[in-house]
Amino acid sequence: MVLASLIDVATVKPAVEVADIFRRHFDEYLKEYHCTAEEFAAVRALIKCRTAAAGGFIRQCDGCGKLQISYASCGNRNCPKCGAFEKAQSFDYAQEQASETSSALDSCAAFSGGLPGGSPDQ
User: Fold this and answer.
1) Partners of 103 in the β-ladder
2) In the 8-state DSSP scheme, what is residue 109?
3) 16: exposed, middle or buried (Cβ count in 10 Å: 0-12, 13-18, 19+)
4) In contact, 38 and 113? CB cutoff 8 Å
5) CA 43 to CA 49: how far, in whole Å?
6) What is the pTM for the complete model shown?
7) Comparing C-alpha atoms, which of 23, 18, 82 is closest to residue 50?
8) Tens place of pLDDT per residue across the chain (122 aa)
9) Spatial contact of 61 and 55, defined as CB atoms under 8 Å apart
10) E-strand stretches of the chain
């Protein structure tokens, strides 16, 4: 299943990304403020995400020989590139589950007014 929100996450690149801001200003930030080891690791992961620093691979088209470079993602849940895709997937999954549960309850006699002994109004 492909969602429009997933397509936007994968194809629309903003003019300035969170990683760009961290690259420019994180060292300055650390001079004045403290961050935990987890926060530091998350920021470093975001900075490296989908860059040569994260590693990657090169694919070549068998037909025309054109090269495509794909960089590894950080997989961090806080990453706007990686985490947003996963959040969209889990949101879609949660909606599917809620829909299935609602359908099951609608078809259940106990929830559709068919309770044994009649309704409490009788």
Assistant:
1) none
2) G
3) exposed
4) no
5) 10
6) 0.55
7) 82
8) 455 555 555 566 788 999 999 999 999 999 999 999 999 999 999 999 988 898 998 999 999 999 999 888 888 888 888 876 666 666 666 677 676 666 555 555 555 555 555 555 55
9) no
10) 56-60, 67-71
As to burial, measured by CB atoms within 10 angstroms (0-12 exposed, 13-18 middle, 19+ buried), residue 17 is middle
pLDDT at 73: 87
Task: Tell me the C-alpha to C-alpha distance, in Å, between residue 17 and each of 75, 79, 99, 121, 122.
Answer: 16, 11, 35, 60, 63
CA gap 20, 43 in Å, rounded = 11
DSSP alpha helix (H) spans, 49-82: none
